[in-house]
Amino acid sequence: MWLEPDEWQGNAEPEQLQVLSAHPAHRLHSQLNYSSLRELYAVANREPVTIHPDDAQARGITEGDMVRVWNSRGQILAGAVISEGN
Prior knowledge:
Elements: H1 38-41, E1 48-51, H2 53-59, E2 66-71, E3 74-82
Parallel strand pairs: 1-3
Antiparallel strand pairs: 2-3
């Protein structure tokens, strides 16, 4: 019997955002995190989080802001990158 997961793309409440985690482009997961490549992607010395311009504007987030991303299992601080995506 299939049970609907607690979280899945499309079931967020209107004020919530869905987090999608892409494979890092410049490293193998957390490996090489302290390499010179970190300067290419770090935002305010944090991992980047990409947010759509409409969602950023609704929350008062600007490029480079440090933002808190959280759910019931934990939280991180990340640097905001505003983009319409690929």
